[in-house]
Specification:
Layout: E1 8-13, H1 18-29, E2 34-41, E3 49-52, E4 55-61, E5 73-76, H2 80-92, E6 96-99, H3 115-118, E7 129-131, H4 137-151, E8 153-162, H5 169-183, H6 215-227, E9 234-241, E10 248-256, H7 262-270, E11 275-277, H8 289-292, E12 298-306, E13 312-319, H9 323-339
Parallel strand pairs: 1-2, 1-5, 2-4, 5-6, 6-7, 8-9, 11-12
Antiparallel strand pairs: 3-4, 8-10, 10-13, 12-13
Helix pairs in contact: 1-9, 4-6
The structure holds adenosine-2'-5'-diphosphate (A2P).
């Protein structure tokens, strides 16, 4: 798909956004073999300079006239409209497109990949597009995969506590501005979210369907079944936006196929690549968003039996949504494609 070479041309569509900035850091940290970088954003950011791997790269305005000649990889994290327009076009032109939107995730001819869980799906990319999951699905499937392999998973009930960075840079700014306003006894306003997010939480992510589910809840269920290749898996989700800047947390209840003691579950989870079990209630050790911020791993704690059902297990999972939930997962996929 991509010819082996010493360096690759990588385009980032949405380079100035919360995920785009993180992608630059991760390309640098992981020494991704770059020949050059092409950074794209809207007109308002054109001309800005960003640094990566010791060089400065100028941001270009993304337009229908933009040329992508010579580009090997396009990492897209901008808007759904941009994914739709450029994902399709660049994939057809032979660029490996790694897309962070929900536009292609459920399409049968687009793999939806978390490399630690289903890297094998990368062998078939007929449209040149691979999607990365929603930033809450990724840590969920990383926690479920070792349990599924060992004893089977029948039903999952998940409640998420999602930071504002999942909405983007403007939402992070809004949380900080509202907090400063309120701490200074000033009136504040909500622009990104329908209600004030500071000192509050919103049980609403995405749009509501006729049944009252949020689109985020529907995505989690469908994406989890696709990645785990478990079409009959029962999954129900409640997604909540919380006044946290970074990291998504999830309370997960699992009905397993066979009995599993919490210690056995901890051992299985600890053996999963990319997972750290951080779980010692006696020492008040459990993962929190501030611990996981800037970290690559998915942290799991509060592993305990749910005695209200047969073979029930409760977990608490925290992961940096901008890293494993988005930019890191995308770069890991590019590394996988490079390795062949
Ligand atoms: P810009 O910073 O110029 O607005 P976030 O998810 O943090 O809000 O980031 C969204 C990213 O998508 C930013 O890099 C933003 O660029 C980019 N973007 C948004 N709308 C457009 C557009 N119409 N054309 C190109 N890039 C866009």
């Amino acid at each position: 798909m991509v010819k082996k070479k010493s360096g690759y041309v990588v385009a980032i569509l949405g380079a100035t956004g919360a995920v785009g900035k993180e992608t630059l850091e991760i390309l640098e940290e992981r020494k991704f073999p770059l020949a050059s970088l092409r950074l794209f954003a809207s007109k308002r950011s054109a001309g800005e300079v960003m640094s990566c791997q010791g060089k400065e790269w100028k941001v270009e305005e993304l337009t229908t006239e933009s040329s992508f000649a010579g580009v090997d990889f396009a990492l897209i994290s901008a808007t759904d409209a941009i994914s739709r327009e450029y994902g399709q076009r660049l994939g057809a032109a032979g660029v490996v497109v790694i897309d962070d939107s929900g536009v292609f995730r459920m399409e049968a001819d687009v793999p939806l990949v978390v490399p630690e869980v289903n890297a094998h799906a990368l062998t078939a990319m007929p449209r040149g597009i691979v999607s990365i999951p929603n930033c809450t699905t990724t840590p969920l499937v990383m926690a479920l995969k070792p349990l599924q392999d060992a004893v089977g998973v029948k039903r999952v009930v998940v409640t998420t506590f999602q930071s504002v960075s999942g909405t983007g840079a403007a939402a992070m700014e809004e949380l900080m501005t509202q907090t400063k306003d309120l701490m200074s006894f000033r009136d504040t306003k909500a622009e990104v979210y329908p209600y004030q997010i500071a000192f509050n939480l919103l049980p609403h992510i995405g749009s509501f369907n006729d049944g009252g589910d949020c689109s985020e809840e529907v995505k989690i269920a469908r994406e989890t079944r696709k990645i785990l290749e478990a079409p009959a898996l029962r999954v129900t989700a409640t997604t909540v936006r919380v006044p946290v800047l970074r990291c998504h947390s999830e309370a997960i209840n699992v009905e397993l196929g066979r009995p599993l003691k919490p210690n056995e579950a901890r051992a299985l989870l600890a053996a999963m690549p990319g997972v750290i079990v951080y779980d010692d209630p006696a020492k008040k050790l459990y993962p929190m968003p501030l611990d996981a911020t800037g970290k690559d791993e998915v942290y799991i704690g509060r592993v305990r039996e749910d005695e209200s059902i047969t073979n029930g297990l409760n977990l608490w999972v925290v992961s940096d949504n901008l890293r494993k939930g988005a930019a890191l997962n995308a770069v890991q996929i590019a590394e996988h494609v490079v390795r062949g």
